[in-house]
């Protein structure tokens, strides 16, 4: 079989280009640190890497929601703790005021202190989470959720939900997993304002009972204060249960991120020691191919005729 010089040259050039391409690929992996530059390098690995990156991005958003929910619940728990302390103090004052032997001026002082506690609790009920959303305002935006005003005698009137803001009872939920949401807020209207035994109602009742002469109403206010305190404790229990669940989800997302990062590194990161060795081998092959090509392509017909 006759092999022409053109065929020989073409074969040599094709082999040289192949060796050069392999050496260039090894150099590119060393420079980038990645095994896959474009999907065509390894379609299967590229597809897996795309899925891993998409999963990590989705999980990162869910974890952001989880951490935001944890922060909301932590602040809610701290605020409810302060509300509970105010109720405890009001109950102590009411117990003291229930005694018929308590001097009227002391009972009046107790009533004044309870009025201040009521004002304090109103400010707690209007607490803001991030400057724009209120812990107990539900989905209401644009102002505080609870309005209050002073009576002619200088005491605080029973606070009420801001008129025209029924969304103050709405639930605030975060998507913590695909298609799974968790409520993070405690609707303030139900806790602070609804019913005579609500937080606002119990404090108002205790204050007014201490200002009155008969002590029978003070006994009634003690029951209201205890009911309000129980409602606050129930709310804190709900908050605590949600905190525990979100804490577990946050830990799970941390573990998931670590696992996926390790898998992504295993699939896509270059073993630098191996990459350097491969580059050296391919460079040696290319240099040898160049030397062989120079020897093969040098002789011509004139060389033999001489």
Chain-wise SSE layout:
Blueprint: H1 5-32, H2 43-97, H3 104-125, E1 146-147, E2 160-161, E3 173-177, E4 180-183, H4 188-193, H5 199-211, H6 216-268, H7 272-297, H8 301-305
Antiparallel strand pairs: 1-2, 3-4
What characteristics describe this protein?
4 strands, 4% strand, two-stranded antiparallel ribbon, rod-shaped, 306 residues, f41 fragment of flagellin, N-terminal domain, mainly alpha
The helix fraction, in percent, is 55-70%
Rounded average pLDDT: 81
What is the makeup of the main sheet?
Answer: 2 strands, antiparallel
Choose one word for the global shape.
rod-shaped
The percent range for strand residues is: under 5%
Number of helices: 8
What name is given to the CATH topology of the largest domain?
f41 fragment of flagellin, N-terminal domain
Strand order of the largest sheet: 1-2
CATH architecture of the largest domain: Up-down Bundle
Number of domains: 2
Order of helices and strands: HHHEEEEHHHHH
Q: Give the radius of gyration.
A: 38 Å
Can you walk me through this structure?
By secondary structure, the chain is mainly alpha-helical. The protein has two domains: about 50-260, f41 fragment of flagellin, N-terminal domain; about 270-305. About 70% of the residues lie in helices and about 5% in strands. The protein is built from eight helices and four strands. It has helices at about 5-30, 45-95, 105-125, 190-195, 200-210, 215-270, 270-295, 300-305; strands at about 145, 160, 175, 180-185. It has a two-stranded antiparallel ribbon with strand order 1-2. Strand 3 (about 175) and strand 4 form a beta hairpin. Helix 5 (about 200-210) runs antiparallel to helix 6. The chain starts with a helix and ends with a helix. The mean pLDDT is about 80.
